[in-house]
Amino acid sequence: MIAVPNPRYPALYQINTRVWLTALSRSLGRPATLDDIADAELDRLARMGFDWVWLLSVWQTGEAAQRISRSNPSWRREFEHTLPDLREEDIAGSGFAIKDYRVHESLGGDAALARLRARMSARGLRLMLDFVPNHMAPDHPWTDAHPDYFVHGSEADLARSPQNFVRVTTKDGPLLLAYGRDPYFDGWPDTLQLDYGNPALQAAMIGELARIAGQCDGVRCDMAMLVLPEVFERTWGVRAESFWPKAIETVRRTHPAFLFMAEVYWDMEWTLQQQGFDYAYDKRLYDRLHAQHARPVREHLCADMDYQDRLARFLENHDEPRAASTFPPEVHAAAGVLTYLSPGLRFFHQGQLEGRRTRISPHLVRAPDEAEDGVVEQFYERLLAVLRLPIVRDGTWSLLDCVPAWADNPTADHFIAFRWEGAAQPWLLVAVNCTSQQSQCFARIPFPQIAGRTLRLRDLLGSAVYERSGDDLLARGLFLDMPPWGRHVFDVQWLN
Question: What is the C-alpha separation between 95 and 205, in angstroms, rounded?
Answer without folding.
Answer: 18
